């Protein structure tokens, strides 16, 4: 799998010291409220589309600041699935968060948060699809490949992080039933492009999953695909139906 180039050792050390100085242990930190959009019709339990935000990028108003609650509710209704998002594992001390990038820790945290919402939101935790941006995309790749029994696949948008990829290299029968979408601007930073293509190749050739790869020509901004709001129900719908 392609690896995201890391900064020089001296810069990494300074970054770790900086983050460590401001990080607050999870047990002591008060987490921001999750967002939950439940389909308007049906009694549940409903499949789950889980948003994994980028570094310091959580917004309780929705997975992309500026998108209306009405638009997100429309997605939930179109999918017949609950759309859920919550802040990442590690508080940074200024009301922002980052993922640990350790699959065991991130998976345990995600599962705990989903279980807390299972009854009030009528979640079917056997049908969970992931979608993530930047660091969240990298975490989505790790969780879905290491724990295919818990996640049906993922949408990865411009993956990137502070460590090397930690996805699984061991092919399991459930990997063949997973669905992945890997997106990035064709002119984004080299590391983001390399990871996007590397993940797509790994999912398909090593794990045997169904993969769609698209690099958006002429796009250099580190952002979601321009057609995301239009295509999201189609993409996530394919993931959530992958084992039917």
UniProtKB/TrEMBL annotation:
Classification via InterPro entries: AB_hydrolase_fold, Plant_Biomass_Hydrol_Est, PLipase/COase/thioEstase
Pfam family of the protein (one): Abhydrolase_2
Hydrolase recorded as keyword: yes
Which GO MF term does the entry hold, naming one?
hydrolase activity
Keyword Signal present in the record's keywords: the answer is yes
* Domain Phospholipase/carboxylesterase/thioesterase residues, every copy: 123-232
Span of the signal peptide: 1-23
Q: What is this protein called?
A: Phospholipase/carboxylesterase
Give the organism the record lists: Roseimicrobium gellanilyticum
